[in-house]
Specification:
The protein has about 190 residues and is mainly beta. The protein has one domain: Hexapeptide repeat proteins (UDP N-Acetylglucosamine Acyltransferase, domain 1). The strands form two sheets. Strands 1, 2, 4, 5, 7, 8, 10, 11, 13, 15, 17, 18 and 20 form a 13-stranded parallel β-sheet that branches.
Length: about 190
C-alpha cells in the first residue's frame, strides 16, 4: 500500500522497483531503481521534528528490503540505505540512521541512531545502537555494539562473509524482474 503521511507527503518510487502489495510505504520515502521491497515490509516517514521538518527515508538502487522489515525515524530524522544493500527479514532500522553501500543487515537485527559504513555485515539478531561502524566491519550474530564498544574487538568482513552478502543481494535483485513480470497475475 502506497499512502500519504499526515503532512501530505507521498512516496516516490522508481518504476523499475518492485513493492509487494502487502508492504506499506508511507510518506516522504524515495525508492530508487531496481529495489525489491518484500511482503509486509513497512517503510514509514511521517514523524516531524521539533522544527516541524522531516527528512526522507531513501532506499538506494539495487537494494532489497525483505519480508517484515520496519524502517522508521524519530523526530523527522533521515534514514538513508545505500545502493546494493540487503536488509533481511524482520530487521528494524530506526533513524536517524545511515546505512552504506553493499551492506548486509541480518534477520531480526536492530539499527538505531547509527551509521553503518560501506561493505559492513551485521549478522542475525545483532544490535547497533548510537554509534558509527566504519567500512568493512562484521558484527557477529547476537552481538550488541554501542558508543562504548571497542571497535578493535569487532572483526573485519572476510571473503566468505562478503560472498554470502553478495549472493543475498544478487538473489533479491533477480526477484525484482520476476515479481514485476507476474505482478498482475492471479
Amino acid at each position: 500500500m502506497i499512502r500519504k503521511n499526515p503532512n501530505g507527503d507521498l512516496p516516490v518510487i522508481h518504476q523499475s522497483a518492485f513493492v509487494d502489495p502487502t508492504a506499506i510505504i508511507c510518506g516522504r520515502v524515495v525508492v530508487h531503481e531496481n529495489v525489491f521491497i518484500g511482503p509486509y515490509a513497512v517503510i514509514r516517514a511521517d514523524e516531524v521534528g521539533p522544527d516541524g521538518g522531516m527528512q526522507p527515508i531513501v532506499i538506494g538502487a539495487n537494494s532489497n528490503i525483505q519480508d517484515g522489515v520496519i524502517i522508521h525515524s524519530r523526530a523527522g530524522g533521515s534514514v538513508v540505505i545505500g545502493a546494493g544493500t540487503s536488509i533481511a527479514h524482520r530487521a528494524i532500522v530506526h533513524g536517524p540512521c545511515d546505512v552504506g553501500h553493499r551492506v548486509f543487515i541480518g534477520f531480526n537485527s536492530v539499527l538505531y541512531n547509527c551509521s553503518i559504513g560501506d561493505d559492513c555485515v551485521v549478522r542475525h539478531n545483532a544490535v547497533v545502537d548510537g554509534c558509527r561502524l566504519p567500512r568493512g566491519f562484521h558484527v557477529p550474530s547476537t552481538e550488541r555494539i554501542g558508543p562504548g564498544t571497542d571497535l578493535q574487538l569487532i572483526p573485519r568482513v572476510t571473503a566468505d562473509v562478503a560472498e554470502f552478502s553478495e549472493d543475498v543481494a544478487r538473489t533479491n535483485n533477480q526477484f525484482v524482474t520476476g515479481y514485476k513480470r507476474i505482478q498482475n497475475e492471479l
